[in-house]
Structure formats: structure tokens, C-alpha cells
Amino acid sequence: MAERATRPRMRGAGAVAVALSFVGVAALAGCAGEGPGDGPGDGVSRNAAAPSPGASSSAPPSPSPTSASGWNPNPGSVAAVGDSITRGFDACSMLADCPEVSWATGSDRLVRSVAVRLLGEAKAADRSWNHAVSGARMVQLPEQMALAAKERPELVTVMIGANDACRDSVRLMTPVEDFRASFEASMRQLRAVAPKAQVYVASVPDLKRLWSTGRTNETGKRIWELGVCRSMLADADDLGPAAVARREAVQERVVAYNKVLRDVCAKDRYCRYDGGAVFGFRFTGAQLSPWDWFHPSRDGQARLAEIAYRNITAAEPPA
Questions:
Q1: Does 51 map to a domain?
Q2: What is the pTM of this model?
Q3: Contact 119, 74 (CB under 8 A)
Q4: How would residue 70 be classed by pLDDT, with cut points 50, 70 and 90?
Q5: Average pLDDT in the 26-38 region?
Q6: Whole-angstrom Cα distance, residue 49 to residue 47?
Q7: Which of 80, 97, 138, 242 allows an S-S link to 87, with CB 3.0 to 4.6 Å?
Q8: Residue 155 maps to which CATH number?
């Protein structure tokens, strides 16, 4: 599948050393804001090849059969929005997006993304788009959703929120009501252009479980010391009252974010929340990036694709 406008990868030991010495910390964490050049047209990859002359990229796809509930388990096109997880960050190499292994729209045959599972490899190349941006928080989702809506997709996948909780301190986490307002604004952006596009919303991962899994690995803990998701992962071996309280505060905020995703989605006829499936998934060490022990590895991306595909194609939404 052709990938366009992908962020260049750093190659070679020198590039890695420079990146770490200046602490591409924010990039490692996937918790940074957008870097230079990360405007609306940057960092957005498309699986779709360029349209043939005279073809309209916004032409509506042919309709697919729907279930009794009105949900179409076989959408004919997929647009993805979200953060570094959907960009495949740190899944293939250090400090780099790798959208070809994205759980939502990637082309990698080992991952078998949602787009590939739903459409097949050939159609996925022409009918899927990845508008996620590494480092994005919920406040940036409306802009992504507006771009996705222009594709006139039958399905939009959403995975965002980890960066809202992953901040340098608990105090800097996104307030729940701000998170809600931005998600509601995102849905309005989509509905203004694509009123019947289906939306699959993945829950925010369990960051405390990631801490519990990763802290058993000495290499992972050393990487976290560079600044990966400090609100949860800082001082990984500190089990004192202050550290425990800090992690609990982050955990409670993630749970609150997931409740917002569930509640807002429930108000939209064409929206399906994953029922907490991603939050409840127990990532193993093999399913975490060997470069940051935080983002999903290629195997982790495949597990996310499995979860999403199962929920998207189910006759009824998760309980």
C-alpha cells in the first residue's frame, strides 16, 4: 500500500544518539505536542494511492448490508484518527512513525489491520486513510476528524486519550470536562460532513497496567527515566505513598476519560464504543515496543486490530 506524507525516520546510531541526548523524550512518550511542521497537512499518511485522473476521492462508496440494529459490520472504507498508537510510533524503529503497522489502516501482513481485514489488501490500499498524529491530545481531535470527514468514509476509527493522561505531572492532565467538550466537538465536525459515517471508539489503554508490566524490565525502566509518560511511569520502583497516590490519580483520570468516550458515543446512533476492551487488554512485554516499553509493538498492533475487528463486525455492540 502506498504511504504518503509519512514522517521521515531517523537512521543510524548517530541519529539515535542525537535524538536521545536532546531527549526526544516527548516523542518517546508519545505525550508531546506537535513538533515543527506538524500542521494539518503534516504527519498524515494515507494508505490510499493517488486517485486516477478524473476520479473523485470523495465519491461515496457503494452501500453495504446493515444489521438489524442499523450498524453495518462490513463498511466499505476506513479513516483513522488518533495519536501515536494509530501512527505505529516506535513499532518499527526508534523515534519514528510506522503507519504500515497501524492497527487501523496499516498494510503489514502480520498485523492485518482493521482496513485489511474488512476490505482486503487491494481495496484497503484505495479506501483507507490515516489522519492520526503522534503526540495528539483530545483537543486536537476535531481538526483530525474534519480531515477524516472529507474522505466520506463509511467507518472512522478513534483511539486517543493516553496523551491527555500522560503528562509531566498529574496537575497537567486534561480536565475531564475539557476532554468531553473536545470529543463532542469532534463528533460534530464529523456529522456536519458525514452524518451517517460509523464511528468505532477504542478505550484509552490501562496505563497503570503498562507500568506494572514494564517495571519488571530493567531496560524498560531506564528508558522511562528519559521522561516517558512521567505522570504514571516516573520513579517506577517507588512504592511510597506519594508515588502510589500519583499513579492512582492517573488511573482514575483514564477511567473517567473512558466513561466520557462511552457516554458521548452512546448518544450517537452510528457510534460504537469498545466496551473497555483496549483498557482491559493485558499487554505482555512482547506486545510493547522494545524502544520505549510503552507503545505497542508490531505484535501489540496486531492484538489491537483483532480487538477492533471483532467489535466492529459483531452483530451487537460490546456490553
A1: no
A2: 0.81
A3: no
A4: confident
A5: 38
A6: 6
A7: 97
A8: 3.40.50.1110
**Grid cell locating 237:** 520502583
Mean pLDDT value across residues 94-109: 97
Query: Beta strand pairing status for 78-82 and 155-159?
Result: parallel
Which domain range does residue 186 map to? 12-46+61-313
Tell me the C-alpha to C-alpha distance, in Å, between residue 279 and each of 18, 52, 78, 208, 266: 34, 41, 22, 10, 18
Domain presence at residue 113: yes
> What's the longest Cα–Cα distance across the chain?
64
- Distance of alpha carbon 183 from alpha carbon 261, whole angstroms: 8
Specify the range with the lowest mean pLDDT, choosing from 2-6, 200-204, 304-308: 2-6
Number of domains comprising the chain: 1
Q: Residue 195: inside a domain, yes or no? A: yes
CB of 10 closer than 8 Å to CB of 98:
no
What is residue 7's predicted lDDT score, i.e. its pLDDT? 38
Cα 51 to Cα 4, 101, 201, distances in angstroms: 13, 23, 28
pLDDT of 239 reads 97
Residue 319 counted as domain residue: no
User: Which alpha helices (H) appear in the chain, and where do they start and end?
Assistant: 12-21, 25-29, 114-119, 121-126, 141-149, 162-165, 176-193, 207-214, 218-224, 230-233, 241-266, 277-280, 298-313
Given a cut of 50, whether residue 310 has pLDDT beyond it is yes
